[in-house]
């Protein structure tokens, strides 16, 4: 997605070979028009999947998840993150380890909002080690619903989350795939070719 | 706003005389089409205020904030909540006490995203005691920018946040004002009249 990649090129800040900061348009300040385009692109890529619900995770997944859901004309549910969770009956939960922060959070979704016959599109802002996406997959499975696809705004392809999810058979669509942050942002060539 | 009030009537769950749960369309599951309407309504009410930025707070403020920002064609910034915050130079911070949870959170916004000449529209999902909104006001003031208005999706008018903010001279626009939760949801009569 060219607009997104241009935005990453011009406004993304590479803090280390592992860390890209995009808090001027995605993680803290949000560019609503870009998010509308991101939502349209996700809807376009998954339009044949009969999506009935979008599932994302607070806080940075909400904007792209909402815009995708608006285009697909389905509700969006966001999983909540908590350090530890007292056991509550009506919650679907999963543990998500963050390698960056070196902490494990419980994520949860009320079981009212995922039904057995739902076809769920999982949306998140970043894909790195895939732990958040896998946690969301676990929650969908626990509900009896089906994961119809996974949509990612920015995939760091040099980390293993993308392969992990694709090897499990999930359709993962990432709107920008970064192959390296060494000496600036490098995008995966295949994506360049496909979207030009 | 009639659509919103109907949604509250039909899907809101009154848990006590103080607590209304709207997690089927606003706080956990989100109705994207309703949020688009909410965004349009905020934009319409504040269109003459020369808004340059929307400020909201994670997580439930993001959806209505994003949609208002999309309509107003300005960026949206969401404040982050943390239990305690190590002092960081480039953050604007405020303390927000939650009476419901009986805990105090630090909220913060990077000083990069609020400028002296910004005219800021503060958006939040709920207004009860007004502590979150006041925290956001503090952050705007600390940045040197101006609060151009406060837009609230659901105001619990029987709590004192609305009066507190209006007495301070802020223009507060709430799309649904609830006068009481005793025996079901009661809306303020003036709002009924104005919007029918």
From TrEMBL, chains A, B:
It catalyses: XMP + diphosphate = xanthine + 5-phospho-alpha-D-ribose 1-diphosphate. GO terms for cellular component: cytoplasm. Keywords: Cytoplasm, Glycosyltransferase, Purine salvage, Transferase. It is found in: Cytoplasm. Xanthine binds at residues 20, 27, 156. Pathway: Purine metabolism; XMP biosynthesis via salvage pathway; XMP from xanthine: step 1/1. Pfam families: Pribosyltran (PF00156). InterPro entries: PRTase-like, PRTase_dom, Pur/Pyrimidine_PRTase, Xanthine_PRibTrfase. GO terms for biological process: purine ribonucleoside salvage; xanthine metabolic process; XMP salvage. It comes from the Bacteria. The keyword Glycosyltransferase applies. CDD domains: PRTases_typeI. Its EC number is 2.4.2.22. Its main location: cytoplasm. GO terms for molecular function: xanthine phosphoribosyltransferase activity. Residues 32-156 form the Phosphoribosyltransferase domain. Belongs to the purine/pyrimidine phosphoribosyltransferase family. Xpt subfamily. Homodimer. Converts the preformed base xanthine, a product of nucleic acid breakdown, to xanthosine 5'-monophosphate (XMP), so it can be reused for RNA or DNA synthesis. This is Xanthine phosphoribosyltransferase. It comes from Robertmurraya siralis. The lineage of its organism: Bacteria, Bacillati, Bacillota, Bacilli, Bacillales.
